Amino acid sequence: MRDRRQSTTRGGTAARPRESMIIVGGGLGGLSTGVYARMNGYRTRIFEMHEIPGGCCTAWDKGDFTFDWCVSWLLGNGPGSEMHQIWMELGALQGKEMRHFDVFNVVRGQDGRKVYFYSDPDRLEAHLLDLSPADARVIRDFCQGLRRFIRCLRVYPFLKPVGLMGPVERTRMMSKFIPYFNVIRKSITVLMRDYSQRFTDPLLTDAFNHILYEKHPNFPVLPFYFQLAAHAGRAAGVPEGGSLGLARSIEDRYRRLGGEISYTPGSRRSWWRTTVPWAYGSATAASTARTSWWRRATGTRPCTSC
After folding, report:
1. What is the pLDDT averaged over residues 179-205?
2. 45: CB partners within 8 A, 6+ apart
3. Which helix (H) or strand (E) holds 31?
4. Which of 14, 107, 150, 192 satisfies CB 3.0 to 4.6 Å to 229 for a cystine?
């Protein structure tokens, strides 16, 4: 479907419909915008300050090691959710092996014991009960909530924002969440730091705060459920090629659709200075560098919203 928005001249007459689009930045947002713009018939060009695509979704090699900067897991990389359709439209996953892991994270306590956060709620429950039988009630409560959230995730609307839905669409969407209302309400109103205090075993109290690797004191229980549920549904694995490979695949899809992209040759060494303001010296200096690059690329000055 094409969206041909018409602009208006000063005299009030309708000008020609817009048929072209300039996109600033070749990160995943810019590349995705370019793909969908081409699918809707726009002529497009992406201007990217770096010499490779991806923005922060990138990786680099140092000796025998690869440092992957972004993708720890990719939501929607497996079928069964609307997000998977988006990745397929962007050309991000075709022909790639997806690597899924039975264990989302392992937390080791100071006493040497380990907590394995299995994606499968049945396996997780059995493991936690073996570690701390005294916490059976809380363990079963958490794992039962996880089971419900796995089913809830299957009806989550990724393709269309709620704000763009009409009254009928919104009512139909909300009706699908009625069976999961309680688990959503409880998990979004209770912080994990408070929920973890229900355990009598200090190992579990600490471990549950580190399910998402780092401790997030202001996170409710809901994002912990969300990540574990996505992994349980094999929809949050790691795609072959990692972060940069993901960006390259979307760039390839964009180019095959006829999109154009302009890079800045030789900018790899200065990527940190021009991308991270504090590494460059100041936000003003970084903004000046971006403006200078834009002038070299287009001969014009970018608007302040860019």
Report:
1. 95
2. 21, 22, 23, 259, 260, 261, 262
3. helix 28-39
4. 150
- Cβ atoms of 232 and 17 closer than 8 Å: no
**3-class secondary-structure state, position 160:** coil
* Residue 52 φ/ψ, nearest 5 degrees: -135, 160
Q: Is residue 288 part of a domain?
A: no
Does residue 281 register a pLDDT over 70? no
Residue 139 inside a domain? The answer is yes
Question: What pLDDT, in 10s, does the model give residues 146-166?
Answer: 999 999 988 888 888 888 899
167 and 200 share one domain: yes
Cβ-based burial of 19 (10 A; exposed 0-12, middle 13-18, buried ≥19): exposed
What is the CATH number for 33?
3.50.50.60
- Angle subtended at Cα 186 by Cα 183 and Cα 189, rounded to the nearest 5 degrees: 140
Non-local CB neighbours of 278 within 8 Å, separated by 6+ positions? none
Phi, psi for residue 78 in degrees, rounded to 5: -120, 155
Q: What is the pLDDT of residues 98-156, one digit of tens each?
A: 999 899 999 999 999 999 999 999 999 999 999 999 999 999 999 999 999 999 988 88
User: Which whole-number Å values give the CA distances from 6 to 2, 19, 91, 106, in the listed order?
Assistant: 12, 10, 30, 55
> Which of the listed residues 218, 233, 248 is the one where a domain comes to its end?
233
Q: Are residues 67 and 185 in the same domain?
A: no
Query: Reduced to 3 states, what is the DSSP secondary structure of residue 300?
Result: coil
Task: Report d(CA 272, CA 269) in Å as an integer.
Answer: 8
Residue 64 lies in a domain: yes
CA atoms of 16 and 20, how far apart (whole Å): 11
Query: How far apart are alpha carbons 91 and 77 in whole angstroms?
Result: 12
Q: If you ran DSSP here, which 8-state letter would residue 198 be given? A: G
Q: Is 33 exposed, middle or buried (0-12, 13-18, 19+ CB in 10 A)?
A: buried
Same domain, 189 and 164: yes
Q: The tokens of 68 are what?
A: 């992957």
Domains of the chain: total: 2
